[in-house]
Specification:
single chain, mainly alpha, Serine Threonine Protein Phosphatase 5, Tetratricopeptide repeat, 8 helices, 0% strand, rod-shaped
């Protein structure tokens, strides 16, 4: 019975050892494959083919999701393609994977560079400060931090100038609107006065017309009536003349008889 227990123990130990060897072999092969893909990515990166380098580095990440080197290099390949916001996100995911302050300082430094290129100056300043906390003596990070601060100051000044110009434009437009409203009101008053004058003139003309219509109009007579009236007037004048002549003659006759 003792011998059988010893045999079982040896057999179990052999199995555990075999599994351990297989696991070690698997990780060794995985690490070798990862290193191979990373080397291909580095070669493409050095040749300036950043897109292909990104493909290779992401393959390495698929092989080993915890590969800090693959993720770091992926960020570099994205930066080479000017995909700055994607680069910042890539490095942000690596902050917790950094195993030492120096690696973390590099991550924050590169993140600051990508944010700086993306025009996010305040965020880049924060990233450079985090990098300097890990590596206070890094002169490159100090220089980039100062540059980011200057860019932020310029951006704020530009924004202030734009706001001031916009306010001036708004004030100018407001003044123009006010002047236009005043001119419009003035024109309306002038138009009203002119309309009133026209109304008064029209009323006067209407009153004159009404007065003329109310006055008796001479009756129109025909040509025959006019001739008859003229003939009657002439006859009347003739009769009057004859009467006057007779009266003069009678007076003269009586006076002559008396003198005689």
């Amino acid at each position: 019975m003792r011998n059988r227990k010893e045999i079982v123990s040896i057999s179990l130990f052999s199995r555990i050892l075999l599994v351990s060897l297989l696991i070690s072999l698997f990780f060794t092969l995985q690490a070798q494959n990862e290193r191979k893909v990373i080397r291909q990515g580095v070669k493409s990166y050095e040749q300036g083919d950043y897109s292909e380098a990104e493909v290779q580095f992401r393959k390495a990440t698929d092989i080993n999701h915890q590969s800090f080197e693959a993720g770091f290099n992926t960020g570099a390949a994205l930066y080479g393609q000017e995909k700055y916001e994607e680069t910042a996100k890539e490095y942000e995911e690596l902050v917790d994977q950094a195993k030492d302050p120096e690696s973390m300082a590099h991550v924050w430094h590169n993140m600051g560079n990508s944010l700086l290129e993306a025009g996010k100056y305040q965020e880049s300043i924060d990233a450079y400060k985090n990098s300097l906390r890990m590596n206070p003596g890094d002169q490159d990070t100090k220089y980039n931090l100062a540059y980011a601060k200057k860019k932020l100051q310029d951006q704020q000044q530009q924004q202030q100038n734009q706001d001031q110009k916009q306010k001036q434009n708004q004030d100018q437009k407001q003044n123009q609107d006010q002047k236009q409203n005043q001119d419009q009101k003035q024109k309306q008053k002038q138009d009203q006065k002119q309309d009133q004058k026209q109304d008064q003139k029209q009323q006067q003309n209407q009153d004159q017309q009404d007065q003329q219509q109310n006055q008796p109009q001479p009756q129109q007579i025909s040509k025959e009536d006019a001739e008859r009236m003229l003939s009657a007037i002439q006859q009347q004048e003739k009769d009057v003349k004859e009467k006057v002549d007779k009266k003069k003659a009678a007076v003269a006759k009586v006076k002559t008889e008396k003198d005689w």
